[in-house]
Inverse folding.
């Protein structure tokens, strides 16, 4: 007998069954270790529970969490980082507010630290060989928190030690094009020191690109034009405003790949195979050091040589020259060189992830994972503690409901506090490597809240298309902070929107790069992922990121005074993430709208048709199969949506039928993975979201192969375009097949 | 409420519910288009149905199927192959004996054919440059079936065209060691023609190895010592016995990789990317041609040079010399050369798979796939029609039950008739490439029955360890053919057994190489697979395979007269495969015993500990992590087995809990896949079953890396050993994690 049919058979049987249910409900003793306020196979999202969770998420508690989390610097694997591991375990094991279980997962990973004894320095060395000007190796102690044994001096993690010395050049953002532009000016880069500014390309790329042109060392600074809307004076910056102080320096990881550098594709267990420490792919071959704009100004405003192009100019108050070397009549003798002394060392350290679980009542083998990293560069009040403060508040509210016995989710909820993210998403990546099969088979979605509040203007959400609908549903229910009276959704719509062919004007969902711990989940495992935060009003600032990012000025005081005084934006993010989490864990039907991929596919296709088709046609490559594949996907996704609607309308759908369509929804993203598509791009297997090097907003494999072929005369490059086209067609057709009725051939 | 608890709550509620069930059962009208003799979520294997199926599988109908299937030659894509596509569609669409649906899947694939106008030839060319002896280009017409427009002459598919001529050498089986042995004798192989015999290494390897040593062309023959237990006279061979006639020639595919050669990892759709036709990896660079032992004898018994080693000698009745060239006083002038003229051509042809489905009543999204190829080299009565005859009989019996409305399986059953297997498992591989995600997510097991009867002595089963238990269960129930009165299991146990540490003496399950269409399913998709057949009494023959394999003598008459006169072995295979199929499709709990992997892991581990540990230790590589990983797997698998037993004992287990453990069983094999483990081995991703080139019966990646490192002085080779060790440890630990309780962290 079909269970659903038993329920639907008529009033008599329904009454008898109802009696059975009542008897069963009251006759079963509540086991103390067995969860189960509701374990009906048709258990669905309970709006009263959801409302109650929204109500209980408390700004004051988030504030207290943040104060505790950001009290001391807690760089990865430091004593304070380990103390926070214990704090998380205590919270998640608490008998009245904790989860079902919590434990740590440790990995032995390769980190990079500056030397406490021998700080990195930047000096101007006169023609006589003596250093006569040395720049500040630390940030200025403006609030009493910028010095101390646990404050790491600014450095470029993974940049190799060395003491290069040479004439200074200014290389803009350090892109390949920037170095070429210098050479086009007749500037010989060999043996020079390149001063670059943050932005444009990744940190590591600035040095790796430089090395290809013979540059001996790289300096990186943050231009006030990029971070402070041009402001640069002490009284215009922190602690007088949210601006970056002149001595503030962005730390960061300077390498190409994420994950532990020595154990690609393998969890970094002590016994795991490790690459040769002296030949690690993706590391800069030359030393690099970040500096504040105060120091950068002293160098840059004294440079000789031709004026840099308009796009290279910044807000340091002088005309930026390209070099090489210093101008006559400036602060330094013209023949002076710059000497960069880097004393970083690589160290194998044990980094911990902390994971906690609330076991699902009905489908414990379906996971919703919610995570953030724990490690910071210094105090990390914003990055990452603003996210962890929210995470702890959500887990407290849900844990309390759980321990009271009033609620247990349909699916399992896993909370994660990742280690060593700042060094390159290491903790989360190692975890996905260790539990790849289990996570791929069972994870419905990954929610990331790293920095929860960049600024207090509007929600910013990034994710793959299937998560759009659940974020929209959640944000329509929650009030935006402030006096507007708008929902988070409507406020978001005012700030960032797009015109959807399907829905009309909607808030704009961003795409996922590799900026935080979602990277391995989406790119390596193919799990639908999202990243949530509150962010800027772009009409009020053009700051590249919040100004004290990765500096010793990212403190509790900074958050409380400038970013989110009432912690209402933190609360808004907690409610949004908590609401999305509950919808994913508790809804009978997974709230992932796979049809929303169709818009993406159409836009990628249109870009290809618009920008690529002429040249493709000249090489006898037709986009016809791609057109068909997109259509196949569209039809299959729409038809599945209809079948789900029909199933939802039935009074009590068969639990196995519900599971089947949910599996189709959950696993769709996996069908876009092809581990053989981009073998040179470590971890990137998702044929829709791999990095795009080409300029056209189309399928990444196609875009990149096309960009290469354009600059190549050989037929091999065009064969690769055709191969990448076939890879994406196969992925789309394969994905469509997973959405079709399950017993279709 | 937990549905299982409702049922378990007490007599009163149970009675009420029971009444509800009864009411429900009889009150629901039977929908005509909706299948459903039984669609209870707890629908389990029905032994009465199983017995009835066993009873109905009919030897006479298998015989009639075979007669029809083998009536004409039906090489892949030939008109008769296409006619058989229609025959399959008709059978599977039959309204009284057919399936729910059937359709074809077509691929445009690269095949290789000899020229009808210009047959391949082998000649002895005298010193004066004229060919004075030419060998038979066709097999002798012994039964009237060996000539005709549809009988392809013997050839080496994919061997390139060309007319090499040179001194003849004898190169045994054409392995790398064999060619080295010739050179060690001072024989210059450059420009020679190498005569080799079948066996030892793959067909293509004989020519590829040869080319590395400068050989210009390769001949391959079947030695009567290897195929006929030494018999070679016409009156000792077919049509007078099952032996290979002197003119019989084994055709076959001569290349390295399986699947369509031009579209690796992509389905061979017309628009798919294709490799450059002039530079296909895995093809022999030199011409090759197979010949009969009659012709081989004329060449080999006239060779000059040193005597070949004992292991190279065969049953042609002379002392095999190594060459080069012919001896004085033999049939040919001493300076004669051999000229091989090959006129094969590559052709893109459309090959069809035929698939049919019986939709599952309860879990239609779980597939049991049962397949065999359809294409033959000539009539292919044994290979593959003996398998297809069985396939059609099983689908008829199940189709009849289905159409009568008396049965529908719990899970979906998919029957497959693959195309172009003889050219390298092409149809099945393209299908797995097209539907990779869908198949990986949903397929519980793949059953292959290619040649169903090699001989009539005993069952032979190959598979991964989880399928052992279901094959044992099935074969214990079925009588072996013949007068023994034994079950198939007991008869099998007498012929091929091993001592299991867990079970004691059991029949020996073989491992899966890449000999038939299961290859892509197990190696590429990680789906538990098996291959079933009846085979030889090894005390009676040492034949490498049944003697007329891939010749024009593999006819219906051959089967009926020599292989299985009463078709009772065919029936035994039909019953075994049908029984296994029904158990997999209908059992509430999947009959896959994942704990049986533990024995394999222990034996691999012991081999490593015994044979590798000394040298590993010298290179600071510890097997400790591997020992731990095997233990983790063992404990997790055993504990899952216990949980399943407990669940089975409950009167009506929760359907979602059953689904959860079944998913753990189904997906285990997937956890052993690592697409990055062996990038040079196309499709091979299963870290336990990839090809082993090293001599030690341990984990293949470890064995192969160790074998390489042994012969290498560099530390890189030992680093690769460590890397392969970490890959297998990670896979085992990852697999263990999938077997642990689903809500464990």
């Amino acid at each position: 007998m079909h269970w659903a049919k038993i329920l639907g058979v008529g009033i008599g049987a329904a009454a008898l069954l109802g009696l059975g249910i009542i008897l069963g409900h009251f006759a079963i003793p509540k086991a103390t270790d067995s969860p189960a306020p509701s374990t009906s196979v048709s258990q669905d999202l309970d709006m009263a529970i959801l409302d109650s969770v929204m109500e209980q998420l408390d700004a004051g508690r988030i504030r207290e969490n943040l104060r505790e989390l950001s009290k001391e610097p807690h760089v990865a694997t430091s004593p304070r980082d380990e103390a926070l591991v214990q704090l998380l375990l205590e919270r998640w094991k608490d008998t009245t507010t904790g989860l079902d279980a919590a434990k740590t997962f440790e990995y032995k990973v390769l980190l990079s630290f500056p030397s406490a004894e021998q700080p990195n320095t930047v000096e101007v060395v006169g023609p006589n060989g003596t250093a006569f000007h040395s720049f500040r190796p630390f940030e200025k102690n403006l609030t009493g928190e910028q010095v101390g044994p646990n404050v790491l001096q600014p450095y470029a993690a993974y940049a190799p030690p060395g003491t290069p010395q040479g004439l200074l050049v200014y290389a803009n953002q350090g892109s390949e094009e920037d170095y070429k532009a210098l050479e086009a000016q007749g500037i010989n880069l060999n043996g020079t020191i390149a001063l670059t500014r943050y932005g444009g390309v990744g940190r590591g790329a600035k040095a790796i690109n430089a090395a290809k042109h013979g540059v001996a060392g790289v300096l990186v600074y943050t231009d006030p034009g990029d971070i402070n809307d041009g402001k640069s004076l002490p009284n215009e910056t922190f602690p007088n405003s949210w601006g970056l102080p002149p001595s503030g320096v962005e730390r960061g990881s300077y390498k190409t790949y994420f994950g532990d550098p020595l154990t690609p594709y393998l969890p970094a267990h002590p016994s795991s195979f490790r690459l040769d420490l002296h030949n690690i792919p993706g590391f800069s071959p030359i030393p690099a050091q970040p500096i504040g704009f105060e120091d950068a100004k002293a160098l840059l405003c004294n440079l000789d040589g031709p004026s840099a192009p308009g796009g290279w100019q910044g807000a340091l108050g002088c005309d930026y020259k390209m070099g090489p070397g210093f101008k006559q009549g400036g602060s330094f003798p013209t023949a002076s060189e710059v000497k960069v002394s880097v004393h970083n060392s690589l160290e194998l350290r044990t980094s911990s992830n902390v994971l906690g679980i609330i076991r699902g009542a009905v489908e414990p083998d379906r996971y919703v994972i919610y995570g953030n990293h724990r490690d910071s560069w210094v105090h990390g009040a914003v990055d990452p503690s603003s996210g962890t403060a929210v995470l702890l508040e959500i887990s407290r509210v849900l844990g309390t409901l759980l321990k009271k016995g009033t609620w247990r989710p349909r699916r399992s909820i896993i909370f994660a506090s990742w280690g060593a993210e700042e060094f390159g998403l290491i903790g989360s990546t190692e975890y996905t490597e260790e539990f790849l099969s289990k996570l791929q088979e069972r994870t419905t979605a990954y929610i990331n809240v790293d920095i929860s509040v960049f600024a207090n203007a509007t929600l910013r959400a990034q994710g793959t298309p299937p998560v759009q609908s659940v974020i929209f549903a959640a944000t329509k229910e929650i009030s935006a902070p402030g006096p507007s009276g708008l929902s988070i959704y409507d406020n978001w719509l005012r700030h960032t929107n797009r015109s959807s062919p399907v829905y009309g004007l909607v808030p704009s969902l961003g795409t996922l790069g590799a900026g935080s711990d979602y990277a391995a989940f989406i790119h390596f495992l193919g799990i639908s992922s999202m990243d949530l935060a509150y962010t800027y009003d772009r009409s009020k600032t053009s700051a590249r990121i919040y100004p004290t990012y990765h500096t010793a000025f990212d403190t509790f005081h900074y958050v409380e005074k400038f970013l989110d005084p009432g912690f209402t934006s933190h609360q808004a993010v907690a409610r949004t993430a908590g609401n999305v989490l509950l919808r994913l864990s508790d809804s009978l039907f997974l709230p992932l709208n796979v049809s929303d991929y169709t818009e993406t596919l159409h836009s990628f296709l249109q870009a290809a048709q618009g920008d690529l088709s002429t040249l493709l046609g000249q090489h006898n490559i037709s986009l016809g199969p791609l057109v068909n594949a997109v259509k196949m996907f569209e039809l299959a996704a729409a038809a599945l949506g209809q079948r789900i609607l029909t199933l939802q309308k039935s009074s009590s759908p068969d639990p196995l039928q519900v599971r089947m369509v949910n599996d189709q929804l959950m696993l769709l993203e996996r069908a876009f993975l092809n581990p053989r598509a981009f073998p040179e791009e470590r971890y990137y297997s998702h044929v829709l979201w791999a990095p795009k090097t080409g300029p056209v907003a189309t399928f990444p494999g196609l875009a990149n192969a096309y960009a290469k072929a354009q600059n190549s005369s050989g037929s091999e490059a065009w064969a690769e375009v055709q191969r990448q086209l076939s890879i994406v067609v196969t992925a789309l057709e394969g994905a469509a097949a997973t959405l079709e009725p399950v017993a279709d051939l």
